[in-house]
Structure formats: C-alpha cells, structure tokens
Amino acid sequence: MKFEELGLAETLLRAVRGEGYSIPTKIQAAAIPPILEGRDLLGCAQTGTGKTAAFALPVLQRLSATPHRGTGKRKIRALVLAPTRELAVQIAESFQVYGQYTGMRRTVIYGGVGQVPQVRALQAGVDVLIATPGRLLDLMQQRFVDLSQIEILVLDEADRMLDMGFIHDLRRIVEKAPDRRQTLLFSATMPSAIR
Ligand code: AMP
Description:
Blueprint: H1 10-18, H2 26-36, E1 41-44, H3 51-64, E2 78-81, H4 85-98, E3 106-109, H5 116-124, E4 128-131, H6 133-141, E5 152-155, H7 158-163, H8 167-175, E6 182-187
Bound molecules: adenosine monophosphate.
C-alpha cells in the first residue's frame, strides 16, 4: 500500500513526502479512508504507530475541502483533545508539518502556563484547536472558545484521559460541540468504559 492509494490530496502527499514517509503504517492505512468519507472512528493504537498522521492528514483534507474565505474571523472547525501538554504540543507540531500546504491554521492550549498568549492566538482565529481538557474548559467558561462550529472532534489517548480523571471535563466539553459532527476516538486500550 502506498500513500497515493489512500485518497489524500496532493497538498497532503507533498507534506508526507517531505517527511520522508514512503508507506503508510497499519493504523494510517486502516483509518485514513473511512475518516476521509466522514465516518466516525474508534481507533486502537499506541503512540509510535503513526496515529497522529492517521487522523491529522484526513482531518486537514476534510477541512481544506471548504476553506475559510473572506476577511471574517476563522471559526474552530476541528478540536483535538489530548491528556497532556507534551502530547498536545506534539500533535500541534504534526498539524503544522502535515498541513503546511493547506492554508489551515492551528493553535494549542494547555494548562500550567499563562493564558494570555493562548487567548491571543484564539482571538486571531484558527481552524484546528488542540487542547488539554482542563485549560480548554477554563477558557470556554471565560468565553474565549466557541465550539459551536466544530465539524470534527478527535479524542486522542482516550484511555489516559479517563485514567487522569478527565471524564467530567470531557462530557462538559463535548456537550458544547454540535451533535452533528464527525467523532474520532483513539485509545491504546479499549476497556468497556472507553467503548
Ligand atoms: P505517532 O504514533 O503519531 O506519535 O508517530 C510516531 C512517529 O512515526 C513520528 O515520529 C512520525 O513522524 C513517524 N511516522 C508517522 N507515520 C509514518 C510513516 N508512514 N512512515 C514513517 N514514519 C512515520
């Protein structure tokens, strides 16, 4: 299987080639086509398997199909939730690399640091927001984040988010996203609580 066979646009294939990837990993080959079709997905994959590209590439492609136009502020259209600052930052870097030819803008927010630069980035307008649940909820309560235009929700390392006690935060966040959306959930393990 080659990347060219997955249905990805040239803007994304160019970025993939730039990273030196020649063949998709197992999770990429399995997840990219159904995500491109707009289906919900439950992915069982650990870090190191290439799971970030497995969702970032098709998410970027779906958003690029209806790019932001005009002078109005960009609305957050994809939200990626991750358990830790380190993972959130890594995911944001991946969106930057894979999306470099798509014109999509992204930012990352996490706790433990001042909120001012994060709020500024949000106010500038982004297509993709990567966040840890606590800081996201905090900024939502301060009305700096509007999730009403979310088209795609990604929950990454869902089992770790549950282990870390984020379930209540997650429920409150998901409540604010439209019901009519694509949902992707990735987890290293699939205990019944996750399912
Ligand atoms: P992840 O599981 O998303 O944290 O990715 C683990 C590592 O695999 C990252 O350093 C990626 O750059 C790399 N990677 C992702 N997809 C591929 C691929 N198809 N071929 C080679 N390396 C890859």
